[in-house]
Amino acid sequence: MRCALCWNEETARLSRQHNDANVLSIGQRMIPEDLALKIVRVWLETPFEGGRHAQRVAQLNAM
Fold first, then answer.
1. Contact assessment for residue 43 and residue 9, using Cβ atoms and an 8 Å cutoff
2. I need a labelling partner for 17 at 20 to 30 A (CA). Which of 33, 47, 59, 61 fits?
3. For 28, what's the count of Cα atoms within 13 Å in the CB-facing half-sphere?
């Protein structure tokens, strides 16, 4: 499991592109609903970039 705590659209995008996060965490009291929906949309639509990030993800998977 690779969980990402996201507080804006950029952290959501990067968590998927670079870490292939497969669980999303959003602070309920800290993030307004409209922003939370944008974060979820970006997170779901962003693919894993692979390349130089694949080795790190493989190391995490091996743990």
1. no
2. 33
3. 0
Please give the distance of CA 44 from its chain centroid, rounded to a whole number: 9
* Cα separation, 63 vs 46, whole angstroms: 25
pTM: 0.85
* Number of other CB atoms surrounding residue 13 within 10 Å: 16
| CA–CA separation, 35 and 59 (whole Å) | 32
User: Residue 61 pLDDT more than 90?
Assistant: no
Q: Say how far apart CA 18 and CA 31 lie, in whole Å.
A: 23
Homologous superfamily (CATH) for 3-62: Sugar-phosphate isomerase, RpiB/LacA/LacB (3.40.1400.10)
Q: Which residues, in sequence order, are bridge partners of residue 23? A: 3
